What we know:
The chain folds into 2 domains: 44-221, 3-Layer(aba) Sandwich (Rossmann fold); 227-290 and 338-401, Beta Complex (Beta-clip-like), CATH 2.170.270. Helix content is 28%, strand content 19%. The chain has helices spanning 6-15, 45-54, 76-79, 84-92, 121-132, 164-168, 172-182, 198-205, 209-215, 284-287, 295-304, 311-323, 373-377, 379-384; strands at 2-3, 41-42, 61-66, 94-106, 138-144, 153-159, 236-237, 249-254, 267-272, 281-282, 291-294, 324-326, 334-337, 346-348, 356-358, 386-388, 399-401. The strands form 7 sheets. Strands 3-4-6-5 form a 4-stranded mixed beta sheet. A 3-stranded antiparallel beta sheet has the order 11-13-12.
Amino acid sequence: MVEIDEELVQIVKEHMPYLSDCTNLVGRANDCFADPISRLIIQDGKEYFQQQNDQGISNQFDVVIMDALEPELESPIAQGLYEMKTLDNIFQSLTDEGILIIQIGRAPTLLDPRPDIGYNAPREQLFQKMESLPDVQAMFVYEDAHSGFNEPRAFMVVCKSSSCRARFYATADEMDYLIYDRIVRTNSKARALSYFDGVTHLGYQVAPKAWETIYCRREPTPFECSYRFLDFKAPLMEYNMDDESKGAFLVTADYAAGEEDSKSTPQTHVWANVDIPKGAYIMAEHLASSLQLSYQSIENLQQNMQYGGVTVIGDFVDFVKEYGHDSQSKGSARRLVEIGASYFIQAVDSESDANVGRWIPPHPQGIRPKYSPVYERHRLSFDVFMVATKDIPKGTELKRYSLMWESP
Length: 408
């Protein structure tokens, strides 16, 4: 803990001792400040990280939590922490997969102006500084309404590695396990965390709509802001499983000559039952039902196969590998698997021969931005939905590019 005000610490120790009372924690000192794992440094945080950098000390912290006055208040003490040099020094102090968490003030509203003007302009400057740091790989924002203020407060998580997405987007059960595995036990047997658990974390994963609304008021408008909503003017082309003649698609399968009675896999084809205009959504209902699996889940299934007698698991893993694709949200460690009729669509090696493709095209800069509440909020929709990339006349076979999901 690096704190600039020693007198404040002493006042809190004397008059608010419950804040540093660790008597209920198993294996900890009665006074939190006296515990061997804690270290209190009375120093300006800006100077501390500069000295660390000057001495060549780096890669020492897994997490840095910066709880300074929010950037919009423009406090002389806090402003030094938001300078480019200080932020870079803090990042140099992080391990390769370290994260920085910053309290960034009140939550925005839909009525706020574009982010670089008005009350929140200093926050936007902070965002752009973090985005410009080479070591920053991912940024998230979240809100909490129980921070002791009259309104919800906002926080930013800045990651040195995109792999932090795997934990930030962990499911409730995954997060509950991580908490159980690492949390300190209590003598009272009560839970050490009063407000946080796996389900609470789910509420942090999707930033409120105001964040992307304000973000999309940036000038120029970010590319992905054109894909915040499905286009209600574009038709939905669905597959009718009960009666193909009433749907937009016909599915056929054929075997190579002489293999009709063998165990070989047939070649499947999807044909247009109607004229499909460019931009129409292809089997959106089926694609919205795609299965999402973590890398860890797939690895667990593979480990179970070593005990034998579970060929159905092996078949499922093979299906996941063949018909699934990795999430476009880099580092999320998730695989999406099409479980509807869409996986019957033939893949082709030439992009020019394809007539269906991803709903959101690859980013024109060749890489997704480090901070984008649009990409984060709609990551699953961007991972599954497909559209017609050209007009598809009735009777034409649908084809997708085999590397459709490979570009960012």
